[in-house]
Specification:
The protein is mostly helical. The protein is built from two helices and no strands. α1 packs across α2. The longest helix has 45 residues. The radius of gyration is 21 Å and the shape is rod-shaped. The protein starts with 9 loop residues before the first helix and ends with a helix. The model has no long low-confidence stretch (mean pLDDT 91).
């Protein structure tokens, strides 16, 4: 995946780096710098991003299908004989 195709932009990676550093220090006793934290966040996002994206699309499709059924029911109720 090229840099232009990443799921997270530079600002998002910067925002996630701090909490990632804190998590690794607290849970794994590992201290990493800001650059390493951003790289790790990008790596993880690039690997799991497609699965999360596809799940979100499936959830949206399910919600939209339910709404469409309600709209069709409402339209059927408006039909006249």
């Amino acid at each position: 995946m090229s840099r232009d195709e990443r799921f997270l932009g530079h600002a998002q990676l910067q925002e996630l780096a701090g909490p990632l550093q804190q998590y690794l220090a607290r849970e794994c006793a590992v201290d990493i710098g800001m650059f390493d934290a951003q790289s790790l966040a990008a790596f993880v996002a690039d690997r799991i991003g497609p699965a999360i994206y596809n799940k979100a699309l499936a959830d949206a499709r399910t919600a939209l299908d339910a709404r469409m059924e309600l709209l069709q029911s409402a339209l059927w109720e408006l039909e006249r004989d």
